[in-house]
Amino acid sequence: MFKAIVLEKTDAGVLAEVRELADDALPEGDVTIRVDYSTLNYKDGLAITGKAPVVRKYPMVPGIDLAGTVEASSHAGWKAGDRVVLNGWGVGEAHWGGLAQKACLRGDWLVPLPAAFTAQQAMAIGTAGYTAALCVLALERHGVTPAQGEILVTGASGGVGSVAIALLAKRGYTVVAATGRLQEADYLKSLGAAEVIDRAQFAEAGKPLGKERWAGAVDTLGSHTLANICATARYGATVAACGLAQGMDLPASVAPFILRGVTLAGIDSVMAPLPARLAAWQRLVSDLDPALLGEIGRTVGLAEAIPEARRLMEGTVRGRVVVDVSR
Prior knowledge:
Layout: E1 2-10, E2 13-21, E3 31-40, H1 42-49, E4 65-73, E5 83-87, E6 102-105, E7 110-112, H2 119-141, E8 150-153, H3 159-170, E9 174-179, H4 185-191, E10 195-198, E11 214-219, H5 223-231, E12 233-241, H6 255-259, E13 263-266, H7 274-287, H8 293-296, E14 297-301, H9 305-314, E15 320-324
Helix pairs in contact: 1-9, 2-3, 2-7
């Protein structure tokens, strides 16, 4: 038997509750994992609260991340005792996820837990931090260097933003953090932000082109915010887009792209191939100070994750929420 958060679709909406399940309830997979920690991401918040139809079938165990130990494996790449991490692959949407004490998954979805991190630290990073690393790698791949100017990070006090600031600052970039919670300025500066600004200046419809400022950006919001970032990006800048917290629309013009050579780099963390995943985790090992994870992440129990998901949707959660599934 094991405990899990289970989502059921009802006439009143999505019901989320902790249940005790038999091992034979686990879905098909070639690796069974004893989960040590999971975490809450924006997509998990959407699933648990039912605010968006991200869950493909019910009942569903949410949780797009997990870190734990292999209990049994028929996959050639894994054996009992291996320490592993999972991020994405539709887990928590179409396949039971990590907000449980056990999971049964495809071995092709797993990566080794880096020796530099504990399972708890890996979940303080989670998909949010792994996505942040993909964004930083994309900026570098498109030639953005610290000498070229400021890098804007939106949604700065959230999980992606927090880790992106830390990674960029470690590499010597001048980071400007945009947030709707200016009271978090000290926190953001402790991560390495050189300046903290109000995200409201990007939130409304703007001009096709504005004054050039950003050499690069990591955007988690989309919609008008992303359009305004592109409009104020410097010649040859790259903007890494990885989120849609403000909206899925992009009310922009082609002007920044054909007049200033701006690159809009889309970042997908869900289906990213194994080499990209391994590169992102290696960058996290090399550039993310584990001591910062105590500031970025805090830990709650399995049942506590349900109200925390609601807070996440309300925009009142700072950094990362780690879930100790044994609590």
